[in-house]
């Protein structure tokens, strides 16, 4: 439907306008830095939700691709052989290739197996980064800075240009993910999430579709990683550590996975929380862990999900009114058929 | 259209299907009946590629399809609906049918266009029309009544534009009145499309009223076959099946 | 890559014996951790991602008990029983609230718990490395086998792990309680209908699984440096063992744990930088060739 695309484009433009305007209205560098972090982690959370929320694949190893994007980009730039756009494309392509291999092994696995094997592969990538000191700098991270030679008349050494470029890339990626989730492919993924066996009986090649979205989501996460590498002018093994994946999962849960932009809400919330926790205490893990427990056991769902459920309830009422002839027998099947 | 020859399958020590050979001519409406545990659903699973038979052949349009995955079997034109409706709870009726149509037209991997694609919606709407689901188009599959869920399940199968349609107890879990409505729809569908339809059914009145041919399974083997009249008079069937189950189901049905 | 060194080691009895003994204890620790993980999954249907943190907790509890009492036996009991108890509390107050809910929620509570435990340990013991030291009981000259020297403690560890594995196997396969637990894994409603307190059983099984992780941690304490976050690598390795051995199979876990133990021990000589890669290659191979694992039933 054309109307949907036009609406999304308009929303994207408005969003981009807001992001560009914000640092002009509040010119503190801290805000700009905060927002660039938000772009990086936001892309990771959004892309992870393509797996978790859209397809029902709970990956616990998504940060691996965030990290490979950062490292590949950083290394290519340090080699001094290629301009920024080429390095960026190569980093995304390289990550996609790695995701293709890992995904080919993982996507056939059921639920919980998928979660822990993706985590295992992430820790493998982490261990490569830490062990291969000659290439990656090991524990210390990619040192020596990442050069930002000007390209196409853009000088990313200017903080404002850097910010604006990151904002444009961020919005473009969000738009791409929106398109995928609203495409026939996106609805095929919803079928797989709801009932993979039935989707298979309707001629859907479930494995191929899962692999497709796994690779795409990894590529989008790698863009997040390279934004961060570009900004901090380095890459660190923590990018690939399991806690980074854990945070991404929490962002999704916090924001809610039913609303398309929910994970961004979660990213914003978690980043704000992290910001203050780091100021007041060094026991970041203790505080974050407690907050997660309270929210998961107390609230039981994400903040944006509250909103979504309200919209859904209204929609259901309208539909029921339309189908006046529909029998009153209301037998909702559980959305989540898993049992312990 | 569809012919099975010497089909056998064992699970552990249990022989669920024993040397079953049946021919289903093109455009026929055939009932598979039999007491509980007779191996009817297993028989469907063997035909549709869900379970691989130990022995025997399944000839579909002249080609042996044993060993093909359920995906390949669907793509050749054999679709099925399930005893417990297998749906997509978070999609609306129209979305689910449209997505199924898209899949049938090999459009599942398309990322550049927007869902729903108009041509696919037209086909989905036609299916809803045929099944009387039109007014429920915007309702979430999870929120449909039991009967509508069964209809939607059949609708999903129809989106595959099948040559052969397998219906596993289309009337399961319904009251007597609803059963007749449901089976009426199946009958209309069969007449309107000219598909080859196989269905599993418990209610004898329904079977005798609409089926052209009936095959009775017992303990995984074919006990009898024939027209409704022949089956009605078949002493084996009466002894083995109608003698107990039928009266029971009648009294329960009328209670 | 140093294949020459590997060949040299394999052809010298003393080096081979040393590496075999190293492989054995790595394998035995992994076996204990994995069998606990596998037991919990088999009965409760959840993967306990905090299992690695429980291993760490066992090591630190043993460390503390040993420092306070000077008794090695007390240290082992404190590590195993302490973690077992902690597991029961964790199951009752946290995990049981997310049964039947999205996997995402289960992952999150485990993630939260690991963060809390790691940070808690860091607050109590500091972030730097700690050593428990070898207890006096085992301050004996190493045993000489075919020219190679094996510390007495290694033999003790292997014996304890084997005994624990045997008790677990017998308990599950040969006792009435084991029968109930196996039934619980297949049909919890039925077990509940028979008037058996399934809530208690779930907590008990979770506690037992945790206890095995704690025991492994306590056993490892005298020979490993302790650090917050030491649980992560053993968690990942026990995932690998689970995949290779087959989920839910104790014998499979045993076999795969030994395989990984020897891979680590000999890999460290042959290709020191590629040991992790080797383990992952093994896992990937099993996933592609036999997804249910070497001894696993059809499930994956």
Automatic annotation (TrEMBL), chain A:
It is a multi-pass membrane protein. Keywords: Cell membrane, Membrane, Transmembrane, Transmembrane helix. It is found in: Cell membrane. It holds the Pfam family BPD_transp_2. The chain crosses the membrane at residues 37-57, 64-81, 87-107, 114-135, 161-181, 211-236, 248-270, 277-299. GO terms for cellular component: plasma membrane. InterPro entries: ABC_transp_permease, LivM-like. Signal peptide: none annotated. PANTHER family: ABC TRANSPORTER ATP-BINDING PROTEIN, HIGH-AFFINITY BRANCHED-CHAIN AMINO ACID TRANSPORT SYSTEM PERMEASE. This is Branched-chain amino acid ABC transporter permease. It comes from Methylobacterium oryzihabitans.
TrEMBL record, chain B:
Gene3D superfamilies: P-loop containing nucleotide triphosphate hydrolases. Pfam families: ABC_tran, BCA_ABC_TP_C. GO terms for cellular component: plasma membrane. One of its GO terms (molecular function) is ATP binding. Keywords: ATP-binding, Nucleotide-binding, Transport. SUPFAM superfamilies: P-loop containing nucleoside triphosphate hydrolases. Belongs to the ABC transporter superfamily. GO terms for biological process: D-alanine transmembrane transport; L-alanine transport; L-isoleucine import across plasma membrane; L-valine import across plasma membrane. The keyword Lyase does not apply. Coiled coil: none annotated. It comes from Methylobacterium oryzihabitans. Residues 2-244 form the ABC transporter domain. PROSITE patterns: ABC_TRANSPORTER_1 (PS00211), ABC_TRANSPORTER_2 (PS50893). This is ABC transporter ATP-binding protein.
From TrEMBL, chain C:
It is a multi-pass membrane protein. InterPro entries: ABC_transp_permease, BCAA_transport_permease. GO terms for biological process: amino acid transport. It comes from the Bacteria. The keyword Calcium does not apply. The keyword DNA-binding does not apply. The chain crosses the membrane at residues 59-91, 103-125, 145-170, 191-219, 239-262, 269-289. Keywords: Amino-acid transport, Cell membrane, Membrane, Transmembrane, Transmembrane helix, Transport. It is found in: Cell membrane. GO terms for cellular component: plasma membrane. One of its GO terms (molecular function) is transmembrane transporter activity. It holds the Pfam family BPD_transp_2. Belongs to the binding-protein-dependent transport system permease family. LivHM subfamily. This is Branched-chain amino acid ABC transporter permease.
């Amino acid at each position: 439907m054309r109307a949907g695309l036009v609406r999304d484009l308009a929303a994207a433009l408005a969003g981009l306008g807001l992001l560009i305007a914000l640092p002009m209205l509040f010119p503190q560098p801290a805000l700009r830095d905060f927002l660039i972090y938000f772009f990086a982690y936001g892309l990771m959370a959004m892309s992870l939700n393509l797996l978790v929320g859209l397809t029902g694949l709970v990956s616990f190893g998504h940060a691996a691709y965030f990290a490979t994007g950062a490292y590949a980009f950083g290394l290519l730039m340090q080699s001094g052989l290629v301009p920024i756009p080429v390095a960026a494309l190569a980093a995304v392509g390289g990550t996609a290739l790695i995701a293709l291999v890992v995904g080919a092994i993982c996507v056939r696995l059921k639920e919980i197996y998928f979660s822990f094997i993706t985590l295992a592969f992430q820790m493998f990538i982490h261990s490569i980064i830490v062990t291969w000191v000659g290439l990656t700098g090991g524990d210390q991270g990619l040192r020596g800075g990442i050069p930002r030679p000007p390209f196409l008349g853009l000088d990313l050494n200017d903080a404002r240009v850097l910010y604006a470029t990151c904002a444009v890339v961020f919005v473009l990626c969000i738009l791409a993910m929106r398109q995928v989730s609203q495409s026939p492919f996106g609805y095929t993924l919803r079928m797989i999430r709801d009932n993979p066996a039935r989707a298979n009986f309707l001629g859907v090649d479930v494995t191929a579709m899962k692999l497709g979205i796994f690779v795409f989501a990894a590529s989008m996460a790698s863009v997040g990683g390279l934004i961060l590498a570009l900004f901090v002018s380095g890459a660190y093994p923590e990018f690939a550590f399991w806690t980074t994946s854990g945070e991404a999962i929490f962002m999704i849960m916090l924001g809610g996975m039913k609303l398309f932009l929910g994970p961004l809400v979660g990213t914003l919330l978690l980043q704000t929380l992290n910001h203050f926790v780091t100021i007041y205490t060094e026991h970041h893990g203790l505080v974050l862990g407690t907050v997660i427990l309270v929210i998961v056991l107390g609230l039981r769902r994400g903040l944006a999900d509250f909103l979504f459920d309200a919209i859904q309830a209204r929609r259901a009422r309208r539909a029921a009114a339309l189908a006046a002839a529909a029998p009153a027998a209301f037998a909702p099947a559980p959305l989540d058929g898993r049992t312990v | 259209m569809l012919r099975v020859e010497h089909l056998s399958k064992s699970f552990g020590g249990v022989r669920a299907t024993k040397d079953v050979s049946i021919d289903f001519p093109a455009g026929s409406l055939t009932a598979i009946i039999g007491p509980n545990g007779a191996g009817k659903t297993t028989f469907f699973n063997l035909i549709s590629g869900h379970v691989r038979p130990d022995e025997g052949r399944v000839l579909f349009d002249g080609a042996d399809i044993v060993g093909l995955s359920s995906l390949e079997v669907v793509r050749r034109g054999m679709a099925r609906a399930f005893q417990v409706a297998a749906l997509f709870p978070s999609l609306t009726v129209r979305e689910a049918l449209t997505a199924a149509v898209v899949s049938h037209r090999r459009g599942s991997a398309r990322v550049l266009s927007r869902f729903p694609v108009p041509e696919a919606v037209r086909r989905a709407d036609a299916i809803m029309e045929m099944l009387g689901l039109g007014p429920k188009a915007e309702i979430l599959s999870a929120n449909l009544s039991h009967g509508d869920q069964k209809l939607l399940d059949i609708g999903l199968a129809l989106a595959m534009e099948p040559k052969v349609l397998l219906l596993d107890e289309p009337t399961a879990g319904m009251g007597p009145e609803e059963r007749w409505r449901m089976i009426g729809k199946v009958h209309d569908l069969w007449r309107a499309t000219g598909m080859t339809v196989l269905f599993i059914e418990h209610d004898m009145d329904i079977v005798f009223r609409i089926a052209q041919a009936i095959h009775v399974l017992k303990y995984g083997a074919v006990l009898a076959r024939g027209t409704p009249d022949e089956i009605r008079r078949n002493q084996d069937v009466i002894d083995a099946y109608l003698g107990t189950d039928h009266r029971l189901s009648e009294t329960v049905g009328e209670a | 890559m140093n294949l020459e060194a590997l060949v040299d080691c394999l052809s010298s009895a003393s080096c081979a014996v040393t590496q075999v003994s190293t492989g054995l204890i790595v394998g035995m620790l992994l076996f204990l951790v994995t069998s606990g993980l596998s037991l919990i999954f088999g009965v409760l249907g959840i993967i306990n991602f905090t299992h690695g943190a429980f291993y760490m907790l066992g090591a630190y509890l043993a460390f503390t008990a040993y420092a306070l009492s000077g008794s090695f036996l007390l240290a082992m009991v404190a590590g195993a029983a302490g973690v077992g108890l902690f597991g029961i509390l964790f199951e009752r107050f946290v995990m049981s609230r997310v049964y039947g809910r999205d996997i995402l929620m289960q992952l999150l509570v485990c993630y939260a718990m690991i963060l809390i435990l790691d940070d808690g340990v860091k607050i109590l013991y500091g972030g730097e490395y700690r050593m428990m030291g070898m207890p006096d009981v085992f301050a004996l000259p190493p045993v000489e086998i075919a020219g190679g020297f094996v510390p007495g403690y290694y033999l003790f560890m292997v014996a304890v792990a084997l005994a624990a594995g045997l008790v677990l196997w017998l308990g599950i396969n040969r006792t009435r309680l084991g029968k109930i637990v196996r039934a619980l894994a297949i049909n919890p409603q039925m077990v509940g209908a028979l008037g058996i307190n399934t809530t208690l059983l779930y907590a008990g099984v979770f506690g037992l699984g945790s206890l095995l992780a704690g025991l492994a941690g306590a056993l490892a304490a005298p020979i490993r440096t302790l650090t917050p976050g030491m649980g992560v690598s053993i968690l990942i390795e026990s995932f690998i063992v689970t995949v290779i051995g087959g989920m839910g199979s104790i014998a499979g876990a045993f076999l795969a744990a030994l395989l990984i133990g020897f891979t680590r021990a000999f890999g460290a000589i042959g290709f020191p930088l590629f040991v992790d890669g080797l383990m992952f290659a093994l896992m990937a191979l099993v996933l592609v060739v036999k997804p249910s694992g070497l001894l696993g039933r059809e499930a994956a």
